[in-house]
């Protein structure tokens, strides 16, 4: 990231950041800054909302109004901000534990309403801030302090969930490819409705070390080898896709946006009742 871009979009006085060496979260933040710049976001009319966890610290580094809220509730706070001030651009940053476990119901209903929010999940497959306990996106049989013999649950596909409940835009990116990530974030920020981008972000400190995946570079290589762009995935049969993670723009649809529908309702009721 250029110095000019950093000085415009980041609170440089808060740097250096708290993330571990090799963490993917800085790559995601960098891509988000580039995407914000590309769509020309007005920082004075942008609010970034986050919950609790390593990923959620990203909100504090961005040079716009922010809400660092309680665990799992970022989307609930963001819903309040958006309904009170529909003209603002609201971006939600959350880790997988935050968004998919305690915040799971908020995620379902924000997507279902197609509320105009851009929600970015930094998916490192563990609760990083509290030392690597398994999360809903931890792969089956992966190791964690809470699963020393292998995690038995299947991982939660958050993109499938978002698409199924009615999000207007769903995409998946990986930290090894920040250019593709930036492109997807630009499209997400451009959409009027609920846009969701899941980003695979490596946690070498806990997930990588415990699962013997090597350091950050090895984990990025793993991402490169195990991700498949959605266009290519469509031509592959299920056997070839086994063990692969599909990236790219996974879903886009036109649904009524909630704040616009709400404004119409208010206007209609006022017209009918004269109040
Ligand atoms: Fe990143 Fe993991 Fe360190 Fe958290 S614990 S900052 S996710 S590497």
Task: List the domain count as a whole number.
Answer: 1
**Could you state the CATH homologous superfamily?**
Thiamin diphosphate (ThDP)-binding fold, Pyr/PP domains
The major sheet is characterized as: 8 strands, mixed
Helical element count? 13
Q: Give the CATH level 1 class.
A: Alpha Beta
CATH architecture: 3-Layer(aba) Sandwich
Bound compounds: iron/sulfur cluster
SS-based structural class?
Answer: alpha/beta
Q: Mind explaining what this structure looks like?
A:
The protein is of the alpha/beta class and 275 residues long. It has a single domain (3-273), classed as 3-Layer(aba) Sandwich (Rossmann fold). The chain contains 13 helices and ten strands. The strands form two sheets. An eight-stranded mixed sheet has the order 2-1-3-4-8-7-10-9, sandwiched between helices. The structure holds iron/sulfur cluster. Residues 19-20, 23, 25, 54, 124, 128-129, 203-206 line the site of iron/sulfur cluster (SF4).
Task: Based on the model shown, name its key terms.
18% strand, alpha/beta, Rossmann fold, two-stranded antiparallel ribbon, globular, eight-stranded mixed sheet, binds iron/sulfur cluster, 275 residues
Short description:
With 275 residues, the protein is an alpha/beta fold. The protein is built from 13 helices and ten strands.
Topology summary:
Elements: H1 3-9, H2 25-39, E1 46-50, H3 58-61, E2 65-68, H4 74-84, E3 89-95, H5 96-102, H6 104-113, E4 118-123, E5 126-127, E6 133-134, H7 158-165, E7 169-174, H8 178-190, E8 195-200, H9 204-210, H10 216-226, E9 227-229, H11 230-233, H12 238-241, E10 245-252, H13 258-273
Parallel strand pairs: 1-2, 1-3, 3-4, 4-8, 7-8, 9-10
Antiparallel strand pairs: 5-6, 7-10
Helix pairs in contact: 2-8, 5-6, 6-7
The structure holds iron/sulfur cluster (SF4).
């Amino acid at each position: 990231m250029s110095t000019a871009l950093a000085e415009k979009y980041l609170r440089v006085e808060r740097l250096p950041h708290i993330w571990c060496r090799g963490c993917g979260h800085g790559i995601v933040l960098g891509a988000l800054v580039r995407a914000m710049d590309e769509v020309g976001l007005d920082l004075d009319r942008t609010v970034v909302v986050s919950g609790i966890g390593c990923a959620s610290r990203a909100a504090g580094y961005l040079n716009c109004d922010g809400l660092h809220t309680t665990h799992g509730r970022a989307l609930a706070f963001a819903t309040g901000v958006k309904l009170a001030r529909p003209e603002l651009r609201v971006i939600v940053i959350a880790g997988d534990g935050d968004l998919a476990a305690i915040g799971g119901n908020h995620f379902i209903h924000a997507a279902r309403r197609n509320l105009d929010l851009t929600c970015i999940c930094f998916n490192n497959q563990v609760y990083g801030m509290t030392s690597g306990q398994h999360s809903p996106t931890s792969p089956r049989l992966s190791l964690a302090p809470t699963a020393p013999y292998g995690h038995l649950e299947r991982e939660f596909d958050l993109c499938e969930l978002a698409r199924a409940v009615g999000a207007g835009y769903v995409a998946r990116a990986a930290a090894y490819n920040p250019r593709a990530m930036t492109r997807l974030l630009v499209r997400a920020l451009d959409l009027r409705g609920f846009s969701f981008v899941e980003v695979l972000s490596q946690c070498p400190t806990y997930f990588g070390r415990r699962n013997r995946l090597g350091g950050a570079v090895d984990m990025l290589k793993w991402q490169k080898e195990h991700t498949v762009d959605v266009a290519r995935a469509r031509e592959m049969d299920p056997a070839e896709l086994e063990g692969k993670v599909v990236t790219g723009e996974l879903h886009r649809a036109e649904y009524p946006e909630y704040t616009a529908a709400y404004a119409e309702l208010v206007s209609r009721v006022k017209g009918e009742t004269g109040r």
